[in-house]
Amino acid sequence: MKKIFALSLIFLTLASVCFAALSGSKKAEINLEKALKTGEATKTTITPFIDGKKLKIDYYVAPYVSKPNRPGDQLINIYVPENATEKSPVLFVVNNGGWFMDDYKDTITDRAGIAIKDGVNYHTDIDTKADTAKGRQQFSAMALKRGFVVVSYGARGRNNGATDGKFLGHSPATATDTKAAIRYLRANKKFLKNIDTDKIVVNGTSGGGAMTALIAASGNSPDFFEYLYEIGAAGISKSEDGKFINDPETGDNVFATMSYCPITDLGHADQAYEFTYNETRKKLFADGKLAFDVAAQEDIMRKSDALKADYAKYVNSLGLVRKDGSPLTAENLNEEIIRLMKNEIEESIEEIGISKMKADIENSQWHGNNWLVFNEEDKTYEYDFEQHKYFAAMNTKLKIAPAFSNSGLYEPQQQNEDNLFGTREQPYCPFEFISWNEDNVKNSVGKDDTGLEWNEFIRTPEGQQLAKQIKMTCPFDYLTEDKNVNIAPNWYVRWGMKDRDSSFALETVFYHELLNSTGVKNLNFEFTWLFPHSGNYDAKEAFLWLDSIL
């Protein structure tokens, strides 16, 4: 039975803020020591068991901004183990999933990796040497055992309802809060003492994987300064002439990221999804595996065809180069996907063996296997990418087309990320051409309300603001185009071979964005053998990599 790593704590009520408001061009002084004495932050000693041994941890809780608009969520947890030193790295846990709110209450459960039961005093041991994946619990336990400081936090997100009529959870709210929490650590380094804020490692899955990638790519980007200043983040001030000033010693750049199944590049995620799954949809419809009538099938495929074609143009416009020095194009993108897949298949044959791989396929929910045929005698194989995609889609039903932006297109409502965008007066906003042009809900967005086609709207001031919101959810532009950022040098990125939540095409383009970025010095990217949409499943391998860069 899977154990849960639990730390004891009687949850304490927090008072308002723990650092001074910013003014003029002066540095923000954030005195954690004073905050502890005045009750504006709390410090508790907790003693969990890791591998059968008790570990004493100082656990801090505090607001990380001076002007929060969701005071109950914009709070930070800092866990400093007794074996920490002034050289201790930081494992910064991004709890976000699906770009939803990082509800602070969830940071004191096992979602954050360090489970705390409100008002209950008990401990449960976790075995960091176990082979089975234990997700955040095992990651956090392994970090604490190594003397890392572990951090989690609450933040705003796209599912926040209106506050005083304003939707404050739209982009870039979650990223801004994440950056503010990182800045809080640096501002308090001298009071925490046992922490090396030059070695911050961000870790997240899905929406959290996208967030860690964005944070790692956009360190100290001026794009975020006005939003950081608005909530009173550390290290951001404003001069008399209205210019924002960043204190480089209190920045939001990080040392490394461990990003699992990142749902990123939302501005082109619909297009990438159809680039990957257009033919798969046709086959699923032909085989009667998707429950839509003929008219609905034709409409979905019309959208899919248009999105697929648009992604081809986008890929060709990027100017990316493959590992062999040749251009990455829409025509050879599938070749690159297959190359990366074969790399993982061959590594898996050596590491876990063909028998185990066959068993993994057979143990899948749908285990039809005409996509990977082995010859056990000489360890060779035949791989069919089209059949692999069909296998993935049969194990987890394909999303609708468009997959990520469709709020105004379907009834009943489909899963989408539209409420991540829009003005503070709008509950949502479409963010690509199909969803914008065909939106049919009366809410002042889309062609039906503005009279403007997507290509016309995106050139207006309102459209440019939306474009900036989209940019501030994605690492791509920061990695290869923005010279005003501090890119994390170390990247560990994983996407499962059975994961259909985003697309193999998008993740392969992401790999090439990283490959082409001069700021990325150490890249460890894999399509991991037959994992679904999940994260932190390879703790041993991940920490071996982390040990090597530290």
Can you characterise this structure?
- This protein is an alpha/beta fold and about 550 residues long.
- Helices cover about 35% and strands about 15% of the residues.
- The strands form five sheets. Strands 2-5-6-9-7-10-13-16-17 form a nine-stranded mixed β-sheet, sandwiched between helices. Strands 1-8 form a two-stranded parallel ribbon.
Q: Largest beta sheet, briefly?
A: 9 strands, mixed
Classify the helix fraction into a percent range. 25-40%
The average pLDDT value, as a whole number, equals 88
Gap between N and C termini, in Å?
A: 33 Å
User: What is the count of structural domains?
Assistant: 2
Q: What radius of gyration results from the CA coordinates?
A: 24 Å
Q: Kindly state the number of beta strands.
A: 17
Strand content: 5-15%
- Under CATH, the topology of the largest domain can be stated as Rossmann fold
Shape: globular
- Based on the structure, what is the oligomeric state of the protein chains? single chain
**CATH architectural type of the largest domain:** 3-Layer(aba) Sandwich
What's the layout of helices and strands?
Blueprint lengths: L5 E4 L22 H7 L3 E5 L2 E2 L2 E2 L2 E7 L11 E7 L8 E4 L21 E4 L16 H11 L3 E5 L19 H15 L1 H4 L7 E6 L1 H11 L7 H6 L5 E3 L5 E3 L9 E5 L5 H21 L7 H24 L15 H19 L2 H9 L9 E4 L4 E4 L1 H11 L37 H5 L9 H4 L3 H4 L3 H11 L4 H5 L9 E7 L7 H13 L5 E7 L10 H11 L1
Parallel strand pairs: 1-8, 7-9, 7-10, 10-13, 13-16, 16-17
Antiparallel strand pairs: 2-5, 3-4, 5-6, 6-9, 11-12, 14-15
Helix pairs in contact: 7-8, 7-11, 9-17
